[in-house]
Amino acid sequence: MANKEASVAELTNLFESSTAVLLTEYRGLTVAQLKELRNSIRQDANYAVVKNTLTKIAANNAGITTLDDDLNGPSAVAFVHGDFVATAKAVRDFAKANPHLVIKSGVFEGKTLSADEVNKYASLESREVLLAKAAGMMKATMGKAAATIDALREKLETAEAA
Fold it and tell me: If pLDDT is split at 50, 70 and 90, which confidence band does 126 have?
């Protein structure tokens, strides 16, 4: 009994300290494939095979009740502590290569996500790419502003000379 309570406490802590969670079914995957998946998301998440009843209790303790219906069959959870989009992308890509892995649902920023919504997040470009695009747009806007100011200055100089 003490072992189960310790497991629930550990899982509750993981739910509370994670920025997001992804619930998956791994039926049919080998130990080597699970290890490969763990390694692919290690930078941003921990991937753990879980017992459904203990996970349900732990999630409820952490205030997450929306995963209850999906906690059936062999379940594993990616507890995200880093970039959610990168983790979703890695899990989605792994699932494409290994159809036995099924994304069931997730929770991100307190909102429950369906498998389709997780895949939409996975389709986003990485944070670095989005920041680079934003910087490029700002640079272009600043360049246009500078060109406009320069043109006004030239007009003023021409008007003063005349």
Answer: low
Best CA proximity match to 75, nearest among 54, 98, 99: 54
Write the DSSP string, 78-103.
EEESS-HHHHHHHHHHHHHH-TT-EE
Residue in the block written with tokens 């700002």:
138
Topology annotation, domain 2-124: Alpha-Beta Plaits (3.30.70)
Which residue type does 7 have?
Answer: S
What is the percent of the chain with per-residue pLDDT over 70, rounded to a whole number?
96
Domain boundaries of the chain, sorted by first residue: 2-124, 125-162
Structure tokens at 99: 């159809």
The strand pairing partners of 78, in sequence order, are 22, 47
Rounded CA-CA distance 64/4 in Å is 19
Distance CA 46, CA 17 (A): 12
Rounded CA gap, 47 and 107, in Å? 15
- C-alpha span between 154 and 159 (Å, rounded): 9
User: Which has more confidence, 155 or 39?
Assistant: 39
The reported pTM is 0.75
